[in-house]
Amino acid sequence: MTARTLARALLGRRARLRWVHLVLGGALLMPFWLVAALVVLPVAGGGNAFLGSSVAAQFGAYAVALPLAWVAGLFPLVRPLSVGMARALCGVDGARFADGPARGGAARRRTAGWFTLHVGVGGILSGMLLALPPFAVSVMLLPFAPGLRDWLRLPASLDTAWALALAPFAGLAMLLLLALCATAAGALLARCAPVLLGPTPADRLAAAEQRAAELAVRNRLARELHDSVGHALSAVSLQASAARRVLDSDPAFVREALAAIEDTTRRTVGELDAVLGLLREGDTAAKAPAPTLADDLPGLLDRTRATGTAVTAQTGVDAAALPVLVSREAYRIVQEGLGNALRHAPGSPVDLRIAVSGDEVEIVLENPLSPGSPAASEGSGPGARPGSLTGSPAGSRSGGGHGLAGIADRARLLGGSASAGPCGGPGEAGWRLAVRLPLTPSGGGTR
């Protein structure tokens, strides 16, 4: 090891930061030491409460202060403070530390152990930093200041020419020893910090739950955007295409199509702003409520019919009487089902049925398929039946989108079920989407 490497290890930036960390530990020990000194020093027979007491009494107060520090370390907020100091000063990767207050007895005990170790080692080293440098400098000056010999009360055996000649080297050795002790103590704390302040199983579980909650919010926002924007774009595309074809021959139809496009885009921009508002940090503006069956089912059907698609609706349910959560998710399911019909079977009639069956709401959408579509060929057998959307290949539709998966997620979160797939016999290939939602949602549907 070269002199430069040794100097960097003892006095480099990392070493200096660790020295500061140790001195902070010594400062944190002082209140506990003072409380212990009020009890220990008088019992030990020290003349003065703090100054002039024996070394044994000083270490006795230190020994009593450590259990007091351990008790203080049990408080949950000690961990964030300790982690903050360790991250900034110990030179350890911050990702190895736990975040937040200590959860559970194991985390509190580990934090208390770290706090005791930090203040204990820091207290010893702080005492050495206060006492040893002045003494070492005094020893180095012995050959040049005879008065220091009496002040230090050196034994006669050390008051020789050889001893005085070696005194400067002895002083330098003391300072080097102090640097080595500080470096070793800093390295010890850096090694123990991730072990005692790292995440416990409870912390990892809480972090996993937090990530799952964030992912659920992201998935919900993705579904909202997919359903509202996807349906609007499909409707607008068909309306614009139909208007283009009859631009010269049927101006009245073109005006109706443009009005429908304007209405659809205006509503979609409002829904898009409401969804994106959830992503704006600190956004306290009032958010537009999510549409429900009771609010906008007739409007949704009218906008779909404006594309030239014939929609037959049988709604044997009082939408206003449905729970808001069920009504909201049912609206999005119907919206996505109609959007699928517009994308995959444009111009084909759609049959929508919404009814209450027992304690469930049943939603069924059916539409014929184009003769050449892959889904049409799948449904060419008399035994063709819709498949569950929980992972069955029958739950996928030509085009590879995520709408059916979103429908399945909505139904599952409410404790319901969903299925989709080809239906009908030869020559009558169609697509059927069937969803059942409980009137009393269960599971994770309270988003």
UniProtKB/TrEMBL annotation:
Residues 368-396 have a biased composition (Low complexity). GO terms for cellular component: membrane. It comes from the Bacteria. GO terms for molecular function: ATP binding; phosphorelay sensor kinase activity; protein dimerization activity. It catalyses: ATP + protein L-histidine = ADP + protein N-phospho-L-histidine. SUPFAM superfamilies: ATPase domain of HSP90 chaperone/DNA topoisomerase II/histidine kinase. Its EC number is 2.7.13.3. The keyword Transmembrane applies. The chain crosses the membrane at residues 20-44, 56-78, 117-142, 162-190. This is histidine kinase. It comes from Streptomyces indicus.
